[in-house]
Design goal:
This protein is an alpha+beta fold. It folds into 2 domains: 3-80, Arc Repressor Mutant, subunit A, CATH 1.10.10.10; 90-163, Arc Repressor Mutant, subunit A, CATH 1.10.10. α1 packs across α3 (34-50), α2 (23-30) packs across α3 (34-50) and α5 crosses α6 (107-114). It has helices spanning 3-17, 23-30, 34-50, 73-80, 90-102, 107-114, 119-127, 150-155, 187-191; strands at residues 21-22, 55-60, 63-68, 105-106, 131-136, 144-148. It is globular and about 55 Å long. The strands form 2 sheets. The protein has a 3-stranded antiparallel sheet. Strands 4-6-5 form a 3-stranded antiparallel sheet. The chain contains 9 helices and 6 strands.
């Protein structure tokens, strides 16, 4: 299949789907190499962006989704009379940050880092579809593990989790040493002159 025809077919599938479609799934449909799908979809996304169209094709992890342009958000909202999703509270944002960086993470891990009960925050994030269950930890009690969703990536404008800014992660099971406060230096020490 030639590149232009492949792009038209990808465009039609993404429009009809209304959600992210995995590259491997597209490759299976066209019986071609995932790299060829990726090249065609990236070129199509570039065409939309260059022409400043009202829609865009976003690459989300290992898939693509057709979305409305961010520049058109006000018009789309007015036309569809949709409400903006509720903002995240500080506690929800803290819990989401921990899950994003440590995923898969348990509620107990979130609570250990935050130092407070996080049941409400985790439930709210599940409701908002920013996190989802990712199996159970193989320890007594088998606690549920959580990971972020493609909605998380879309909400924060990320193509993948690798785009998260780096942080210093907390080590579990090891004591954390806090920096010791240094005594104030005497004026003679600051100037290098003897007092």
């Amino acid at each position: 299949m030639e590149q232009e025809q492949l792009q038209r077919a990808i465009e039609a599938i993404l429009f009809a789907a209304g959600e992210r479609i995995d590259i491997r799934r597209l490759a299976a449909v066209f019986e071609t190499d995932p790299d060829q799908i990726e090249r065609a979809a990236d070129a199509l996304a570039d065409q939309y962006a260059f022409a400043r169209r009202g829609i865009r094709i976003l690459k989300l992890e290992k898939g693509y989704q057709m979305v409305s342009s961010g520049e058109m958000a006000d018009y789309v909202t007015k036309a569809l009379e949709t409400r903006k999703p509720p903002k995240l509270s500080a506690s929800q944002l803290e819990a989401l940050t921990i899950i994003a960086y440590y995923q898969p993470a348990t509620k107990a891990m979130v609570e250990q880092i935050r130092g407070v009960d996080s049941s409400y925050s985790v439930a709210a994030l599940l409701n908002k579809k920013l996190i989802e269950e990712a199996g159970r930890l193989n320890v007594p009690g088998r606690p549920i593990q959580y990971k972020t969703t493609p909605d998380f990536l879309r909400t924060f404008g990320l193509a993948s989790l690798e785009e998260l800014p780096p942080i210093e992660k907390v080590s579990f099971g090891e004591p954390v040493e806090l920096p010791q406060e240094q005594p104030a230096r005497q004026p003679s020490e600051q100037t290098g002159e003897e007092g």
